[in-house]
Design goal:
Order of helices and strands: HHEEEEEEEHHEEEEEEHEHHEEEE
Number of helices: 7
CATH class of the largest domain: Alpha Beta
Low-confidence stretches: 1-6
Radius of gyration: 18 Å
Strand content: 25-35%
Mean pLDDT: 94
CATH superfamily of the largest domain: Creatinase/methionine aminopeptidase superfamily
Number of strands: 18
CATH topology of the largest domain: Creatine Amidinohydrolase
Oligomer: single chain
Length: about 300
């Protein structure tokens, strides 16, 4: 079913989304392959992001490496010495951007593969697979949320209720429609010829996250975007890492503080469950076309 007046996706736009998805998937696999006990967060992030650039794209956001009770929004700072430890439950989340059109994909791994969290990892992954199978144009967002919730709760865990999937547009990673991880009553329709990311989070805790420390990720938030301003010039309106800015602005720390004080940039806090909980995540980007559903990151 196509809504009257709904514009069809341009062929070049579709091609850019597909290329971004392919590169994002390869970069995710590459990042995961580097994670082992003793590896540094910094090396994994820098190499995975450079892989995207070498493939002819740009990172659509900094590589997120969120551990244990962290759901999202941690990326290493410049010179970060933090290392992966055996048994860490790591959410690996990244994407590529081609001509401004982003992809977004994620998976969860256990460092050292002890098998302790296999069921939790399966819960988010299978919820994602079920949601993709359920997807079609003009479905209500709540119906996808209900499927995610069913899959996660059937495995003995809780979906995180204050996180979810999102619409994607050019130079806009989180736009328009919100895709809940449970039936929240959201009757918004998933329109054809749009792009969304579905990202179930499963938790051993209460199923809610709160803001933690600064995750070293920022985004322009001012209403005026100056063409020659260094952040806009290098990263446009997509999220960027502190360490990215360090490579183009030697006084990056002072510059970020100045921009933040004038509300020109906003920081992303690390999102956390309560202290003893563990979280898994899985994510894909989907093109919702009138005649087919394409998973760009698969």
């Amino acid at each position: 079913m196509v809504t009257e007046g709904m514009p069809k996706m341009d062929a070049e736009v579709k091609h850019s989304y597909l290329k971004a998805g392919e590169i994002g998937r390869k970069a995710l696999e590459y990042a995961v392959s580097m994670i082992e006990p003793g590896a540094t967060f910094y090396d994994v992030a820098e190499k995975a992001e450079q892989f995207i650039r070498d493939e002819g794209a740009k990172p659509s956001f900094p590589l997120n490496l969120s551990v244990n009770n962290e759901a999202a929004h941690y990326t290493p700072s410049e010179g970060d010495k933090k290392k992966f430890r055996r048994g860490d439950l790591v959410k690996v989340d990244l994407g590529a951007e081609v001509d401004g059109y982003p992809s977004d994909n994620a998976m969860t791994i256990e460092v050292g593969e002890t098998g302790k969290y296999s069921d939790l990892i399966d819960a988010s992954r299978e919820a994602l697979n079920a949601a993709i199978k359920r997807m079609r144009p003009m479905l209500q967002a709540r119906q996808i949320g209900a499927e995610i919730e069913r899959q996660i709760t059937n495995r003995g865990f809780k979906p995180i209720k204050n996180l979810g999937g999102h619409g994607i547009n050019r130079y806009d990673l989180h736009s328009s429609i919100f895709i809940p991880n449970y039936d929240d009553g959201n009757a918004a329709l998933i329109k054809p010829d749009t792009v969304i990311a579905i990202e179930p989070f499963a938790s051993t805790g209460i199923g809610m996250v709160h803001n933690g420390q600064n995750g070293n990720i920022y985004i322009l938030s001012g209403t005026k975007k100056e063409e020659d301003e260094i952040i806009y010039k290098n990263f446009s309106t997509l999220p960027f890492a502190e360490r990215w800015l360090a490579k183009v602005r030697p006084d990056y720390k002072n510059y970020l503080r100045s921009m933040a004080s004038r509300s020109q940039v906003s920081a992303f806090p690390v999102l956390k469950e309560h202290s003893s909980a563990r979280i898994s995540q899985a994510e894909h980007t989907l093109l919702i076309l009138s005649d087919e559903i394409i998973v760009t990151t698969k």
